[in-house]
Amino acid sequence: MALHFSKEEFEKRKSKTLNSMKELNLDALLMFRQESMFWLTGYDTFGYVFFQTLILDQKGNLILLTRAPDLRQAQNTSNIKDIRIWVDKDNSNPTDDLKIILNELDLKGKKIGIEYEAYGMTGRNALKLNKSLDNYCDVEDQSELITKHRVIKSNEEIVYVKKAAELADKALNEAWKYTKAGASEAKILAEMQRVVLEGGGDYPANEYIIGSGHNALLCRYQAEKRNLSNQDQLSIEWAGTYKHYHSAMFRTIPIGKVNPKHIKMHEACVDALTKCEKNLIPGNTVGKVFDVHAKTFDDLGYNDARMNACGYSLGSTFSPNWMDWPMLYTSNPYVIQPGNVFFMHMILMDSDNELAMNLGETYLVTENGNERLGKQKLDLVVL
User: Fold this and answer.
1) Per-residue confidence band for 2, with pLDDT thresholds at 50, 70 and 90
2) Number of neighbours of residue 239 by Cβ within 10 angstroms
3) CA distances from 39 to 6, 43, 327, 337 (A)
4) Residue 5's CB: how many other CB atoms inside 10 A?
5) SS3 for 95?
């Protein structure tokens, strides 16, 4: 059994979840988020793209309902003892199998929380589930119950986050090593991913983002790969990943003779990141951090080039993306706490001049402030 945490750690997580359920008068919780299942039991799979749920009742019973390919996956990666299989067939409805389990647990007429905010909870699955539970029990959206526990990392989790940060640093070294005029974006990507995997890391929850030339202004991965020209710009966003825990970074690298506008944009990014860093402290809200980011850029005349969010929480996440709750945007009331891990990205996209500048780092919030987990320099590196 490949459990990545101690028995005591899993017991603490289950106890926290049960206490929250008690406070909310929930008789059971139906988990559909893979992140919740991994956090609570160690269960590691991408089978959540199909109907799959983990049931926890107030008595502490844990039952996984999944498909046959994930039977041994759950047995080998989790501490779940009771695994039920729904059978693939035409017009199959796994909510019928779920209803049998709920009856076994005497949950008819009871109050059940459901994680509706989940990638496996498609619109069709939600409709099936709601229809099945209509007039059967009281249903309540509890998509953030476990997420609010996950957002504060334990000491065991922090070890993995810091290991992920080490791998992210190594990946940047590879990017600097292979970035030059004539270099292939594909080669740079391959070397960055190679060093993470060879260092014991994992695939990230989403693709690394890489783009040069006009594609350096994109904030998402896309399939075009090109070779760098003599005068170019390369934007890369990546994450070191270890046991599914992420530590992300973001850089834009000018190639050839640097444009003076690039230098000014980089100075603005360093200024904004430094000010955000000073405000990423316990007691502040993430909304305040964003407002510092926005004011810094706006005062420098970059209001049209900046984004409407400047980061998000990181942790153990699964495809399709590594972004976790909460996000750093204006008026977000979430209060920063020790144990939070945030990726803060300073993004400037100047469409008029086709120039990009990005600077992003991951931080662990401590009792008295924060720790930047990446150890690389913030200087503008021109290659």
Assistant:
1) confident
2) 28
3) 12, 8, 20, 19
4) 17
5) helix
Summary mean pLDDT of the chain: 97
Q: Where are the domains of the chain?
A: 7-150, 155-372
Which candidate, 29, 52, 17, 25, places its Cα nearest to that of 115? 29
Separation between Cα atoms, residue 322 and residue 320, nearest integer Å: 7
Strand, helix or coil for residue 214: helix
Preceding amide of 326 cis, omega within 30:
yes
- Architecture of the CATH domain 7-150: 3-Layer(aba) Sandwich (3.40)
Pull the structure tokens for residue 156. 């065991």
SS3 344: strand
Report the C-alpha gap between 292 and 288 in whole angstroms. Answer: 6
CA dihedral 326, 48, 90, 127 (to 10 degrees): -20
Least-confidence region, from 220-224, 246-250, 254-258, 270-274: 220-224
Report the range of poorest mean pLDDT among 1-10, 141-150, 273-282: 1-10
Cα of first residue to Cα of last residue in the chain, in angstroms, is 46
pLDDT tens digit sequence for 82-97: 999 999 999 899 999 9
Q: Would you put residue 373 in left (φ > 0), alpha (ψ -120 to 50) or beta? A: alpha
Q: Which CB contacts under 8 angstroms, 24+ apart, belong to 96-105? A: 96/132, 97/65, 98/30, 98/53, 98/55, 98/65, 98/129, 98/132, 99/132, 99/136, 101/55, 101/63, 101/65, 102/28, 102/55, 102/136, 102/137, 105/28, 105/55, 105/57, 105/59, 105/61, 105/63
Residue 1's pLDDT is 63
User: pLDDT tens for residues 201-220?
Assistant: 999 999 999 999 999 999 99
Against a cut of 0.85, is the pTM above it? yes
Class of domain 155-372: alpha beta
Tokens matching residue 159? 């070890």
**Would strands 245-255 and 311-313 be described as parallel, antiparallel, or unpaired?**
unpaired
User: What whole-number distance in Å separates Cα of residue 143 and Cα of residue 29?
Assistant: 10
Identify which of 47, 14, 34, 18 has the alpha carbon closest to the alpha carbon of residue 113. Answer: 18
